[in-house]
Design goal:
mainly alpha; UraD-like; 3 helices
């Protein structure tokens, strides 16, 4: 289950997402199941500083994890 952000955290997260998109030219992709709200924001702040190729690889790995978790849920029913 993704973390729930309070209003202040949401505002900061939205600003960071916009900054991330400006820097990397794509939306922020993260599998947040194991993160707290502050952990999600910390992860986003850290990943803004990644070089483009490293961040693209990280975003792909996160998308893969999201797909795996989704498929695992579908396969158990």
């Amino acid at each position: 289950m993704p973390p729930t952000l309070d209003d202040q955290q949401r505002a900061g997260y939205d600003d960071l997402c916009a900054r991330y998109a400006d820097v990397h030219g794509m939306p922020f992709v993260c599998a947040p199941q194991d993160l707290t709200a502050s952990g999600l924001i910390d992860t986003l702040q850290r990943r803004i500083a990644n070089d483009p190729s490293a961040e693209f690889a990280e975003a792909c790995a996160q998308a893969e994890r999201i797909a795996e978790e989704h498929l695992a849920g579908k396969m158990t029913t």
